[in-house]
Every structure is written in C-alpha cells, then in structure tokens.
C-alpha cells in the first residue's frame, strides 16, 4: 500500500529546497523546536492535563502562528509534510518500539478481543461513518466527492491512531485498557490496508456475497502473512545473534543488527504488499522475547532505551509537525468562501467518529464478556467507556491517509478536497487536544482504583521493566516457564486459569523447541561474560516479591542484592 | 560550504524513484546487505588483514558486479550516491562519535602537533599535489580542466579521510598515532573548507601577500568559530540536563536531547557557513566531558553504545556504497576510449598523495619534536612512517568532493570530468584496500611493542572505557582533577610533567568554575537515585590499578568489587 508513496517523498521534499540556505534555517529551527518540546514536556510532566503530544501540538501551533506573521501570511510551516516521510521513517520506530515493550502476556490473553475490536470493530465503524457521511454530505454544499471518497473517509476515520493511544494510556496503570486499545489500533492497520485496496480495486457498484468472501479471505491472508513475516524476521535475528556471537559479544554489532533487521521486516512487508505496521509490531514482540535475551547486558540497556528514544523523537516530530501544518494558509483559502461548511463537516465527522466507535465497543465487549468465565476478566461498563473514549483520537495516520486521498501532486485545488483536508486537520486537532486532554482525568474519575489483578499480572520479562537488564534472567525463578512445570498453587496460575490451556501448551512448545533454538530467558548457554553468566547462579536465592513496578532507583538496589547473594553463596 | 548541497540531495534522490516498487526492492537489498556486512565483519574480526570497511567494500563490489550482470550491463548500484546524503546524514554521527569517544587527554596533549599537521600539513600537501597535477596532466591527454580544477584536486586529495582512519588505527593499541592522524583529519576539514572557498571566490591569477593573510585570517576565524560553537552547544546541553533533570531523570529524554543537540550543533555550523565537522567533533568532546556525567547510568550505557552503533552503521553504509558505486557503468564508458590515460592519472594521483604526505609528515614531526623535552614524547621515525602511511587513505569524503567538483546535475558528460571521477574511485579503492589492508601488519612490523606509556596514560574518563558507566565517578579517586591538587609523586604526573602547566591551570579552572556550573565527573550534586549516588561513597576505597584496558567482561567484576566495598564500609 505504501510503495507508490516512496516515489512521492522525493518529489515533495524537493519543494523544501527552493532556497538552499532557507532549508538549513528550517532544519535548525525544527531541531531546536524538538529540543524545546522535550524540555517543556519534561517540565509539564507532573501536570495532570498535559502530555507530550499535546505540548508538541501547542508548540507547533504557536510556531506556525509566528511563522505566519513573519512571512506575511504566506506560509506557516518549515518543512513540507509528506505522508511518506511519516510512513518510511517515523512510523516504523514507533510501532516497533510498541511491540518491543508491550506486555506480551496481557496482549496475548486478550488476543481474541483485540482481533474482534481491530477487525470487526473497524469494519462496523467504517460502515457507520461512510453511511453517515453519504447521508449528511448530500444535504450540505459539497460536490466533487464520489462513492470511493466516502468509503475512504470511512476507512480513514475508523482507524484509531496508535501513536496517540501510546501517549494517552499508560501500560503500567491500566494494562488491560492499554493492550485492548493499542492492540486494536495495530490490528486495524491490516483492516484499513484491505479496505483501501478493496475500495480502489473492487467494483463497488454491485456488491455480492462473493466479494464479501474475497474481502474476508484477503484480510485473513494479509493478517497471517504479515504476522508470520514479522515472527520469522524476529526469529532469524535471534538465531543469528545466538549462533554467531557465542562467547564474543559486541554491543555495537548486536544493536545495529537488531535495528536493521527490525527495519528490514518493515520494508519486506512493503515489498510483499503486506501490512508493515503489523509485521514490525510482531517482529518487536519476537525480538523482545528471544533476541533481547541473547545479547549482552549493555546491549539490553542500549536497545531498550534507544528504541524508546527513537520512538519518542518520532512521536514528538509528528505532533510538532501536525501543529505547525494546521495553520497552512493554502488549505484554508478555499474554506474562507464557506466557513460554515467546514465547521459543519468537522462537527459531523467528530459526531460520526463517536457514534461509529460506540456502535462496536459496547456490543463487541458484551460478546467478548460472554466468552470469559471469571468476573475479573470481563470488561466492566466503566472500562468500556474508557475504551470507547481513548480510541476516539485521530492523529498523524488519519492525516497521512487524508493527504493520500485528497491531494494531487501536493496541492489541494478542488474545493471539496480542500474542505476535506481542513476538516481532517480540525478533527485531528480537536480529538487530540480535547479527547486527549480529558483522558487522564476521565480515567481517574471513572476508574478510581484500577483492577489490582491487572498490575499483578503484568509481564516482567519485557524490556520495559527497568530491572531486567541488570538482572539478566534472574526473574525466571518466579516464572514457571523456566521450571517447565505449571504450578497450580501459585496465585498467578489461579488467576490465569481460564486462559491457561493455550498458554500452557505454548509454554511447553516454547521450552522444548523454541528457546533451545532461538535463545530467550534462561536458555542462552552458559558462556563466561555472556549476559546470563551471573543470573544463572542466583536464581534459587533471589525472590521476586520485592520487585518495584517501575522507575530507575530500584536498579541499583537489586544489583546490590544480587551481588551480595553471589558473595555469600 | 555544504548548504548548496542540501538542495541537490532531493533532486538526485529523485532519480531513485523511477519505479516505485523497484525502490522498495533496492531498499530491501541494501538493508539486507548492511546486515550481511555486520555478520561477515564479525566473523572475519580475528583476521589480521581484514577490517570492517574492507569487508563492506568487497561485498559492495561483489553485489555491484552481480547487479551489473543481472541488469545486462546497465547499472550496478541500488541507490544513487549523493554527497548530500553523506554530508547530512552519514558524516555527522561518525564525527560526533569520534569526538565523544576520543581520549581527550591524549588529544589535547598533542594539540599543537595536530594543528600543525591539520593546517600547515594539509596546505603543503595540497600545494605539492596541485603542482604535480599541473605538471603531469599537461603531458597527458587531458583537456577541459582549468586552474581551479587543479587546485580542487589538490584540496581533495590532501585531506586524510577521517572515516578510514577510525577504521584502521586503534585508539587502545596506538593512542598517540590515533590521536595525531585522526585529529589531523578532523582539523583538515576546516582547512579544506577554507581552501575550497578560497579557490571559488578569490582571484587566483594574481596572488599577493594580502590574499595569503586574508586566507590565514579566514582559517583562524573558521577554526575558532567552529570550535566555540561546538563547545557552546555542548555546554548548553550539559547545563539543561543538569538543571532540569535534577532528581527526576528520564533516560529517553536525556538521550533524545543529547542526540538532537549534537545534530543541532552540526547544522548550526552549516547555518553560519562554518565547518560542521569541527563543530560536531568539539561538541562530542564537551558532551563526553560534562553532559555524559550528568545523566543516569542507563543513559550513559545507552548513549555510549547508541552513538557508536549509529556511527558504525553509517561507516558500513558508506563503504558498502562506495564498493557498489565503483562499477557504475556510466562513469566508465568515457574511459573505454582511453584506458591508458585513466590508469596513468590514477597512478600519478597515488604517487602525488604519497609524496605530498611525505613532504609534511617528516619535516613537521621534526619541528614538533624540537618543542618537546622528554624523549618519550617525541615522535620516533618509526612512528612517523606509520603516521605517513595511515594517512594515505582517501575515502568517502574525497568521493563526495570529487562528485561536487566534477559532476554537473548528476552526469559526468565531459570527458575530463569522467576521467577524474573514475580516477578518484580508483584512488579510493586502491588506497583503502591496499594501504588499509597493509596498515595493521605494518604497525605490527614497525612497532612491535607500542609505547607502554601511551596505554598507561590513556584517559579513562571518556565513554569508550567500558567500566565507566557502571562505576559512575568512582575513577575520580585516581584523577587529580577531583581532589583539586596536583600530586607530583604519582607516576602519571611524572610522565606528564612537560605538558602539565597548561593542563594544571585548565584543571583549576575546570574545577573552580566549569564543573560546578555544567556538571561532570564528581560535580553532580548528590541526589538519591542520581548517577553519582553510589560512586560518591566509594571513591576513597576504590583503587584504579586493576582497571582493564577494554572489553566487556571486566564490567561485572568491577561492579562486584564496588558493591562489596559498599557493603563492608
């Protein structure tokens, strides 16, 4: 889907270089603004309303305004936005990092619900929005849009923005909601790829069951093929690092190989016309499960933080740009003739987004709850409200798709198209600012005490937990995967009973075949100087109950405990 | 100097996108080849002849050959080389990392010699090569080159390639040679900027003393301004992180800020028409001296390895590309008419490079030795030979400058230009392969036992030393900088006596003003959970004599020692 965009990136970027020195000035200002976003975002961190993305948006808007004043109302942006810059450079690190640091246990336990939301939910939402748009726009003064455009609008606004979700929901505080909403946003990328292809290639005038079946088959193929590709590339990276770096580790090479192979998985997906987002997400999961445990301690610290930082910079870049781009004068000049229409279109779109999401979150949650036995696993009504709310944001992905659909050669000449672009910007700004600002307080209001079980069940083996890099595989002592026996007396096993069968067989398979082959926690052979060296000795003595949820302070303390244990045994 | 190139990058990259899917295929192959280079480079690491750059060159040549066969002799490269891609994305991380991990003590002790080599030496070499080229080319069958071209050839081939130097000389094994040759290659960037500007703007037909003075003044301004800019940006980053992150550290933000500000220093230098290479190099030095000590332990591990990895990937990228580009058929078709001329030109250039370098290394080493009192600090004749030899390589920088001078709009239409491009490729390939391959064995032959003093004097406070991140500022106990007193009884002070006066006053100034202001080793205020927390307590007990030169194994051992010390006190 993104292949044709590779071509356009260079064409569009060229407009950047109208004046040589001017582009150097632009780059300077942009990089300086990125720095400012980081510093101000840090200062505002304690603030209960703000988050980093909104800070970047506001700084972008403010800068755009100043540039608009200085340039005498001619331009408000420093760089020309290209959806391609976004899809080729900015999106892959964000999604890879999300997969790399997702709590795998939480994600796979809710796998069926996530699939339901991501595939069926997106379809429902798309249908509702498309029908609504067809209905409302006829009454408004908008011409030049055909049925394909309406369906594209549906697909565009049905997709929850994964980047926004990452910013608003906290994996540590509300792990269930995070995995549901974020997982949904990743899966619906595959759905939207199928939808876009369908809209562009199928004959939409006569719909019959065969086309629906073909559509379903396409989705299944795309989903499975993308997942398999991501998993295979991840496993190859684990195997290479495990085999080649035996006893002779090099942090630089390990990090370089992980980074390049993660990116390779993304562009390979593009090569085979699959969903790169889905592929790089699963590649991240596999790398954090196998590859990450095969490398040195310093590689673990480095990869964990470097991937997070790249993702963080890319996110800040996107929001800063979206803010700056919102004031682009060229897009607004068509709207001047009919400001009422633009406002009405934006309002209709926001309303439809809310209705479309409500149309699937509550029914599908009900369905999902039917399949669950224990009350603690069901999605409560309060949580459904949060899921509905937190998924309302539309971000850079919607912007990129809107540019793709409604701009020809970088200009928004047709009036209908211009109105759609400005409306998309309005929806993105409104949803990110208002829905985004309200999410944190809303969670505090609706869910005063997040489920205790959720945080207890949080997976400690992902790179996110800051202790892991220093502890090596020390945590395996409380993870039944290492002992290979399922202990029904442990509190965790009790809580996970409903889901334990699939999980149990996966564990057996993982221990018997996958880990000996690809490494992973506790299955890297003993080599002096290798990451597991110290941890192997400490397993029995070390007790996990003192693990601190997050934060940097505990690292030193645990290192200390570990060392003392080594000393006394 | 590089500002006009920003414009060209997008124009040239556009040729990449002749076919959308083809460019995705190219990217896939290129990233896969990068992975292959890393893996094969690792496997060949023990080999005494090979190094990573030569591996990448050979893989590039091999791939180029295969592509040439497949495409039926039409093309041999996947991506269109652009000097701008090189100057904007690939060079900054390499030079920044070199500054970040350079042994500062060694570098500044030899500062005058480095300046002599980098400025005066480059001028001598440039003059020799220019005169030689004018002399030889007249007899050969080469038209269409004017005096400006000849001087440009001189400047082009007078510059030692900093990227090659990093690959061939080892900072740990031969620190003196490394700092001299690499330092020279950084300083001569400033010289070549001035030379290029001079060649383009001054009236070269009538030279008088005023122009020479103006030239010298220009160089001095450029050198000082670039250095000051790099130092200021580095200090600002140290100050921001020290002030804002007090007691509340965030690794992702710290790393992002360091990365962005380092890049900012480079593009700011371009903004003010300074030498970006010099600026980003000094920014790296300041960041490793101050900023790096203000961040958390995990940030230190992350920045150290992430910067090294980015630099490593960029270097591999360059050499892989140069190898692939060498077989580009378009450049060679002009040469087919007169293969003898091209070979002769290449041979003459290589001969002139060797003569030009000999013309300044030996006389200037003699001058430098006159100023040194102790025998151990003088550059022996054997070392002079190595300095001469190791600086003979011409790499991607020469390629980029050749493209800049001899191609118009990406095509090498004029015969003289085409011959110069192919000759440059030949010189780069020959010098990198032959001189590069021979350097390691030559050092072993000429210098069987590298000076013991050199390795003893190596600066432990740079990020390169792998122990540092885990030790915090523990090493300060043997560093008089922390105690603030110059101890003449220590073995190190004895050895450094000749240079100690400047160093002593710098230390006093650093301790009295700079460190309290900008942080740095041992001067970050005590905050629970901050990087210095543990180290502050350990200083007196910890003895540095057991420090291992390099390698990853000692880390754990020292951590262990440290922890036990904490435990027992």
UniProtKB/TrEMBL annotation, chains A, B:
The keyword Ion transport applies. It catalyses: Na(+)(in) + H(+)(out) = Na(+)(out) + H(+)(in); K(+)(in) + H(+)(out) = K(+)(out) + H(+)(in). Its main location: membrane. InterPro entries: Cation/H_exchanger_CPA1, Cation/H_exchanger_TM, NaH_exchanger. It is found in: Membrane. Residues 31-443 form the Cation/H+ exchanger transmembrane domain. It holds the Pfam family Na_H_Exchanger. The keyword Membrane applies. PANTHER family: SODIUM/HYDROGEN EXCHANGER, SODIUM_HYDROGEN EXCHANGER 2. Belongs to the monovalent cation:proton antiporter 1 (CPA1) transporter (TC 2.A.36) family. This is Sodium/hydrogen exchanger. It comes from Hibiscus sabdariffa.
